[in-house]
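Shape is hard to put into words, and the shape of a protein is harder than most. The fold becomes a row of whole numbers, each drawn from a learned catalogue of backbone shapes. The outcome of that step, for a single protein, is printed below.
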Amino acid sequence: MKWIIFTIIILLTATAFSFITSAPFLLSILINLAVITRKKRVFAFGILAGIIQDALVLRPLGLTSIYFTLVLGILFLYDKKFETRRPEFIAIFSFLTALIYSLLFKVSLSLLVAIVISITTVIIFYAYTAPAFIITRKRATRR
């Protein structure tokens, strides 16, 4: 059920935000999905979302997919070396990847876009992980 929800969110983000803005909100969702689930299925979502976004923005098909795949590959590569589930890592990683995305695909106001994507990524991470943290904390205090 969770994967169906993730698929719907990614498809909606790929279609809706492609028309509204050129900011890489899909990158934010994919980074969170990879960090939270740690499953290799995220690569398939990245490829699918990148192709949809390229088709909607009229870019050559596959450019965004390649970038998303490289970012997710780097994230999984450093998963064992760093604490990728820390908000600091997520903020820095999403800032750098959004900045590189903005520069590669010629998005205007690249630095502002990178800051907004970084903040969005951390907020999504906290929104997803905070309920689990609160439940775990309540169970620990009951004992």
